[in-house]
Design brief:
CATH superfamily of the largest domain: GAF domain
Helix content: 55-70%
Strand content: 15-25%
Distance between the termini: 139 Å
Largest sheet: 6 strands, antiparallel
CATH topology of the largest domain: Beta-Lactamase
Number of helices: 10
CATH class of the largest domain: Alpha Beta
CATH architecture of the largest domain: 2-Layer Sandwich
Shape: rod-shaped
Number of strands: 13
């Protein structure tokens, strides 16, 4: 009995063990399935995490790109100096792609050499002159010809290292991007020494920045054209104003200066007519030759010659005024031939033309070293001749005459001075002496045209002429001309 019970107990235990084994197997299967699901979900999570990281990186890159592009665009809209704009655009692009050095260069007119507009050597040392034009070679030439970005990630092993000038920065990798105006390459944007390598993303981004540089350059060209046109319009307006002033002066001359000799001619012609009528009456009543001779003698030998002389003087004055007006009008229509003028040679020639008058009056002439200027040689010669001529004419009686000519040079202009120790002029005449036909001393010969013509010539050159003077001490004329 005990044996049967024992067997039953063993069997029950075996059944329990079998049941537990089945449960364990079921648990293991469930665990395996769960592990596989967890592994799959983990892989999915890692894949999702990787995708999210990629999206985040793309977002950050796009954000950085947009910020850099916005900064470049704001520079174009905000600043007038195109060189400063290009500097901002370059640095925005350099930071975005991670380059460590670079440059912006313009092509010369022959499109063969480059001229550096902006250079950035970064942390590197460079002793090459940035203004020295360099020929287009290698990646630069390829970028120019293909009109597309080109990069070289192993520059030290390229054939172009031998063409680098002595003192140039070390180049590990390079990238060049053309910028264009009206479908023509006008320059190159260059980057160097990016950690790692340049890639196609860099090509895509640098193209956008090169477009901004093209816009900045194009805007500058338009601005310069507009400035030139505005300047031309201002010059034309100034010329028109001067012509109107000349017309007003001519109208005044016609109503006053020209009218005076005409009145004289008319008056004395009337007198002559009356004398002729008187002579006719005397001849009609002629009875005695001697009496007739005595009565006609004052008319023929005194009054008629005097009246004719007055008429001739008035005619000569009219002729002089008309000739002066013609000279002035022809001067306004003269087509200038602008060239660089050696003023030392010009003044030597001017003084040689007055050599006789200078020796006759024993005038001391002192000429310092003069800077050059730009202008029409014959017209500038005429200006200095007019002023030297006046210095000779208006010397102070009893004083040894002296003329001192000097010049200084500034950034854009050369200023010349012609100083004499003559009579001088009063302060209220300093402007009047440049007016047409104005003469400060009528006892001195002349038409009153020299200084008016000189002022017109200097203004035609875009320069200035003015005078300082003290009565009894002389005049000092200043002439400012473009150099």
């Amino acid at each position: 009995m005990q044996t049967i019970d024992y067997i039953r107990k063993i069997k029950t235990q075996d059944e329990e063990i079998a049941r537990q084994r089945e449960e364990i197997n079921a648990f293991n299967e469930a665990y395996r399935v769960l592990s596989e699901e967890l592994h799959e979900k983990n892989e999915n999570f890692q894949s999702l995490e990787k995708k999210l990281k990629t999206i985040e990186n793309n977002f950050r890159r796009k954000y950085s790109e947009n910020i850099a592009l916005l900064k470049a665009l704001m520079a174009i809209l905000k600043f007038p100096d195109y060189k400063y704009i290009i500097k901002i655009i370059y640095h925005s692009c350099k930071k975005l792609i991670g380059a460590q050095a670079g440059l912006v260069s313009l092509l010369t007119e022959d499109n063969i050499q480059k001229k550096v507009l902006y250079s950035d050597i970064g942390k590197y040392s460079c002793t090459v002159d940035g203004d020295f034009p360099m020929s287009l070679r290698g990646s630069m030439e390829k970028s120019y010809k293909l009109q597309t970005p080109v990069y070289e990630n192993n520059f030290p092993d390229s054939e172009w290292t031998e063409y680098l000038p002595k003192g140039h920065i070390h180049l590990q990798n390079v990238m060049f991007v053309p910028f264009m105006i009206e479908n023509k390459v006008c320059g190159l944007l260059g980057f160097a020494n990016k950690p790692g390598e340049f890639n196609d993303d860099d090509k895509r981004m640098t193209l956008a920045f090169s477009e901004f540089i093209s816009i900045a350059l194009h805007n500058n060209r338009i601005l310069q054209t507009l400035k030139e046109k505005v300047k031309k319009i201002e010059q034309l307006n100034k010329q028109l104003k001067n012509k109107n002033e000349d017309l007003e002066k001519i109208l005044y001359i016609m109503t006053h200066d020209l009218r005076s000799p005409l009145i004289n001619i008319h008056g004395f012609s009337t007198e002559i007519s009356e004398i002729i009528e008187d002579i006719g009456n005397k001849l009609a009543n002629f009875t005695n030759l001697e009496t007739l001779r005595e009565s006609l003698s004052p008319l023929l030998n005194s009054e008629l010659p005097l009246f004719f002389n007055y008429i001739f003087v008035s005619i000569n004055k009219l002729d002089s005024l008309i000739s002066a007006l013609l000279k002035l009008f022809r001067l306004g229509r003269t087509e200038m031939t602008v060239q660089k003028i050696d003023m030392n040679n010009l003044l030597a020639d001017v003084i040689s033309n007055f050599e006789y008058g200078l020796k006759e009056k024993n005038v001391d002439v002192v000429i310092g070293k003069l800077p050059s200027c730009k202008g029409d040689l014959s017209l500038i010669h005429q200006v200095f001749s007019n002023i030297i001529d006046n210095a000779l004419k208006y010397g102070s009686p009893g004083k040894k005459q002296k003329i001192v000519i000097s010049g200084t040079k500034s950034k854009n202009f050369s200023v010349f001075s012609i100083e004499d120790n003559g009579k001088g002029i009063s302060p209220n005449e300093r402007e009047k002496i440049f007016e047409l036909f104005y003469r400060s001393d009528n006892s001195v010969s002349g038409e009153g045209l020299g200084l008016a013509a000189s002022k017109k010539i200097i203004e035609m050159h875009g320069g200035k002429i003015w005078v300082d003077s003290v009565i009894g001490e002389g005049c000092k004329f200043y002439i400012s001309l473009n150099n």
